[in-house]
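User: Here's a chain of 372 residues. Predict its fold as tokens.
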Amino acid sequence: MNKHFDVIVAGMGIVGMAHAYAAARKGMRVLVVDTDHQASGASVRNFGFITVTGQEEGKPWQYARRSVDIWRSVARQASIQIDQTGACFVAKCKESSDLLQAYARSKSGEDCSILGKNELQDMCDGNFSEEIEKALYSPHELRVNPREAIPTMRQWLTHHLGVAFQTSTHVNRIGKGRVETTQGTLHAERIYLCMGDRLGEICPEIWQKRKLQICSLQMLKLSPPGIRLPFPVLSDLSLIRYPGFADMQEAKALSDVMERKFAVHLKHGIHLIIVQDQDGSLIIGDSHAYGDQALPFQSEQVDKLLLSTFRALLPGVEAEVCERWMGSYVCAKDGIAFSEEINEGVYAIEITTGAGMSLAFGFAEEVLNHSI
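Assistant: Prediction complete.
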């Protein structure tokens, strides 16, 4: 195998794929290396929800808008199924309703619309809670099944953009122009380390300096309940987690209400996102627990809280849990992403908000534009 490339990307999750795509689009000879035979980390353990609405104003929102455009283009060319489009944020109290209406009037709320409960019911098969006051519908979002989309993207990058992949290859050391691996030394002018939680193994000084942590998430898959949701649905607990909402003046009143009514949920970082696969099964989650490593253990209390929150939003919808798993992502207290040149032409890359699916393509495009 050729051991000399223009660009080497370490990591074949969505952040690595996005950098490989951006480099290949510039005509670069690209190699992606990964320890695993196939993507098995954060990129295939998430909702597959590419979201714009609720992203922080400024760069994050711009990255997300650009990422959605690229996702649409790649999905069309690579025959990646888009399972849902748009998103709906529901309000079950006056405070969340006020926040959604304020967001719809803001610059970030461009093209979003406020729905009444009956309008929401007409758009979905599900029987939503009588407590719903309003909902915000956004047309911007996409949802794909990440377990299918990531490997399909890999095949498409190989066959249509000439990106090479070398799997079962562990990165041992990196330096200017070289990557030393278990399969020998590889060479490239530019090296992008998109390794997620493995970055700390190669660059412990970056991990420590930026005070990076791992956020562990509990996720559930429910058997098809016989309803069809045309878009992902998010509860008002989500509004105080998404900075685009949480940073608004109206969010303070909602936060006070949520802290009084849902203290246990907030203790576990629980909010509710519901997405749907093509076979009708539902993915619901999630919770947030922070530490120095990913947690392997699931809390039954958290699962019960997720299910009770789901059933309160969609009463009468019965579905059995058919899968449980732990997701994870790299997080930081400050910033949404970084690209740091740690050696000449060698860049450590992380998206640190759990929004890799939403931000990666837009962020990678900027990184490549600035580094090549």
